[in-house]
């Protein structure tokens, strides 16, 4: 059983082409990203234990699109909640004290809670889809130190550019540079 | 698991509050909770399971023999179980307040304490949701509470506050669980990377969704986290408002008041923060985490207890004022009965624990004394349980018609339900502390000064 789990957790070795630079200082990593992007390496991946605003700016990351997915979920939830109230009260009319069947205040509670529920679920699904989670196949070499205190910059490139990128990363203060492929 | 950094830090500095934290030592400090099962943990866990087994025997009696084995008798058909429901939903509320509301307000002290508070939310709602489910008397028909298409075109009554509760509590359970699990992803990835046992590694790999900490993952993670917080904030206020409307929508004296929604929300946060303090004090002491959850953090939580205590006290006094000032004689009689009738002891326990004793929190030395704080927060939770008991039982025993008046006495079955609810909650909590990071590694790391070459130079 344990052997099976171990086998499951050990994926087949993947072949990557590019250079991984491992940094300790945040400002070094941010400057390296800026320089690499200036040199034409736009498809960088940066790994870090926490997000760093300096690196985000250097990468010129825009806001996440997850908000539109969440908005769609909320809209669907509110509409669905009100529709459920409307349909159910029409399908099984319960007249209480001669009051209106279509009563907006109580329907608002159901509509509101449904809006939050579906917006929350959409937010989750949107985040997972956009962040490409669950990640079944690695997109770059991974190092557990990225969950501790190191920042990794992955520069995908062909063998002809390896030496130049390695030199750039070392010049920007990388503690360690690994060449793949 | 390396604890070199922690020990070095611990030995180097005498004051536990001032132990230095680095990015790597933080991983060690938080993960030592996971790596230490400990004899006392097993003792606590087994004791908890024994208590839970007794409570489950009481639930079995209730289901097999019916609610007659409890002290329930018309007109008091809501007593301990609904008291427990409201109490545990209230406990749950603090987690969302700390994790979502304080996140939106950029209140950084939340980072050290929010994971425990969030876990408390999820386990609190799980505990609360059991009580209405049992209280239906025939729990195997509980699915009738949900609207679903059926051959007779029967639907739930969407105009009933009890049905609003079904929507509110289930939405709260779903959204708070998602919020909790999503927040765990980066930290579980850190635990995954250190896990040695294949089974634990598999569990952490599944829970971390293959997180690597790539820039595009952080971007969407925080994009979504902001919206979780933005959605959970109105949700936390709406859920306890809806719970309060279970009472306020009726015409029963003592319940029919527009004050109920804010009064219940303040009470929920009050008891929840007190419970967080009760959970944090032993954890930070046992695992020597005083440098992560500092006295300043604890003092800020104590101030929240004080603030909400004054709000609850104001609500109690407003209720009495409105009963005296208003035209409703039944309301006036009921409030007089609350303070001086059969249940005077419950009322005065509530009032003392929730309004009078917390006044000592005006003094800074009290807020920074963990022994007094622990004891005081237990009193607050005793008081808040009695608040719900007083609201429910006194109003039901003395309704409009004196012919229906009845003196409710709690049976041993209900005592087992109360104790069992705590055992159920702590069963989840003890497992949580043992297997998941109880403090947010990523968020606390964000508060640390980041290494910069220019500073170093």
As a whole number of angstroms, the C-alpha radius of gyration of chain A is: 25 Å
How is the CATH topology of chain B named?
Formate dehydrogenase/DMSO reductase fold
User: First CA to last CA of chain A: what distance?
Assistant: 35 Å
The DSSP helix count of chain A reads: 6
Q: Give me the count of strands of chain B.
A: 0
What's the CATH topology label of the largest domain in chain A? Answer: Alpha-Beta Plaits
Integer tally of domains of chain B: 1
Mean pLDDT of chain A: 89
Which outline of chain A best applies? elongated
Number of helices of chain B: 17
CA-CA gap between termini of chain B: 32 Å
Strand content of chain B: under 5%
Low-confidence stretches of chain B: 1-11
Q: Any idea what the shape of chain B is? A: globular
Radius of gyration of chain B: 23 Å
Notable traits:
heterodimer, A: 181 residues, alpha+beta, Alpha-Beta Plaits, 2 domains, elongated, B: 457 residues, mainly alpha, Formate dehydrogenase/DMSO reductase fold, 17 helices, disordered N terminus
Short recap of the structure:
Helices cover 52% and strands 11% of the residues of chain A. With 181 residues, chain A is of the alpha+beta class.
Describe the protein's topology:
The complex is a heterodimer of chains A (181) and B (457).
Chain A: H1 2-9, E1 18-23, H2 26-38, E2 45-47, H3 53-59, H4 66-91, H5 104-130, E3 151-156, H6 159-171, E4 176-180
Antiparallel strand pairs in A: 1-3, 1-4, 2-3
Chain B: H1 4-12, H2 23-35, H3 39-65, H4 80-104, H5 114-135, H6 161-194, H7 198-208, H8 215-248, H9 260-286, H10 295-325, H11 329-340, H12 344-356, H13 364-367, H14 370-397, H15 412-435, H16 441-447, H17 453-456
């Amino acid at each position: 059983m344990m052997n099976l789990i171990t086998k499951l957790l050990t994926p087949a070795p993947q072949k990557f082409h590019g250079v991984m630079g491992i940094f300790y200082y945040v400002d070094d990593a941010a400057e390296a990203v800026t320089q690499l992007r200036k040199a034409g390496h736009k498809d960088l991946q940066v790994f870090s234990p926490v997000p760093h605003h300096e690196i985000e700016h250097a990468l010129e990351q825009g806001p996440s699109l997850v908000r539109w997915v969440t908005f769609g979920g909320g809209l669907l939830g509110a509409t669905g909640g009100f529709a459920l109230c409307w349909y159910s009260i029409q399908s099984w009319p319960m007249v209480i004290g001669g009051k209106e069947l279509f009563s907006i205040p109580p329907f608002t509670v159901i509509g509101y809670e449904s809006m939050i529920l579906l917006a929350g679920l959409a937010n989750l699904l949107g985040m997972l889809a956009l962040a490409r989670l669950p990640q079944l196949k690695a997109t770059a070499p991974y190092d557990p130190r990225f969950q501790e205190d190191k920042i990794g910059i992955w520069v995908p490139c062909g063998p002809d550019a390896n030496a130049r990128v390695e030199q750039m990363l070392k010049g920007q203060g990388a503690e360690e540079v690994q060449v793949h492929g | 698991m390396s604890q070199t950094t922690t020990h070095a830090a611990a030995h180097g500095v005498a004051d536990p509050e001032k132990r230095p934290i680095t990015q790597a030592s933080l991983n060690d400090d938080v993960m030592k909770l996971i790596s230490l099962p400990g004899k006392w943990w097993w003792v606590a866990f087994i004791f908890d399971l024994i208590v839970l087994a007794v409570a489950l025997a009481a639930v079995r009696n209730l289901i097999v023999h019916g609610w007659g084995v409890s002290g329930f008798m018309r007109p008091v058909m809501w007593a301990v179980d609904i008291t427990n429901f409201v109490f545990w939903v209230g406990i749950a509320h603090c987690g969302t307040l700390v994790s979502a509301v304080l996140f939106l307000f950029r209140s950084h002290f939340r980072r050290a304490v929010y994971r425990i508070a969030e876990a408390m939310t999820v386990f609190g709602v799980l505990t609360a949701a059991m009580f209405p489910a049992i209280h239906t008397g025939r729990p195997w028909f509980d699915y009738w509470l949900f609207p679903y298409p059926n051959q007779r075109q029967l639907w739930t009554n969407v105009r009933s506050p009890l049905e609003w509760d079904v929507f509110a509590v289930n939405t709260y359970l779903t959204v708070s669980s998602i919020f909790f699990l999503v927040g765990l992803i980066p930290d579980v990835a850190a635990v995954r990377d250190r896990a040695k046992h294949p089974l634990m590694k598999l569990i952490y790999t599944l829970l971390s969704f293959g997180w690597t900490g790539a820039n595009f993952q952080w971007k969407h993670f925080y994009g979504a986290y902001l919206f979780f917080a933005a959605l959970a904030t109105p949700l936390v206020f709406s859920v306890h408002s809806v719970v309060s409307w279970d009472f306020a929508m009726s015409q029963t004296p003592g319940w029919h008041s527009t004050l109920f929604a804010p009064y219940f929300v303040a009470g929920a946060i009050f008891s929840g923060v007190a419970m967080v303090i009760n959970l944090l004090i032993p954890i930070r002491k046992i695992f020597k985490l005083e440098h992560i959850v500092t006295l300043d953090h604890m003092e800020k939580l104590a101030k929240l207890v004080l603030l909400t205590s004054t709000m609850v006290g104001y609500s109690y006094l407003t209720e009495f004022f409105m009963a005296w000032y208003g035209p409703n004689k039944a309301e006036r009689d009921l409030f007089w009965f609350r303070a001086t009738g059969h249940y005077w002891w419950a009322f005065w326990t509530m009032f003392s624990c929730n309004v009078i004793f917390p006044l000592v929190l005006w003094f800074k030395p009290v807020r920074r004394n963990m022994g007094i704080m622990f004891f005081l927060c237990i009193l607050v939770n005793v008081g808040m349980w009695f608040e719900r008991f007083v609201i429910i039982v006194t109003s039901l025993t003395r309704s409009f018609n004196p012919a229906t008046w009845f003196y409710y006495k709690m049976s041993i079955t209900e005592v087992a339900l109360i104790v069992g609810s705590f055992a159920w909650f702590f069963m989840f909590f003890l497992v949580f502390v043992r297997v998941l990071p109880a403090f947010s590694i990523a968020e606390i790391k964000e508060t640390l000064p980041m290494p910069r070459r220019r500073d170093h130079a």
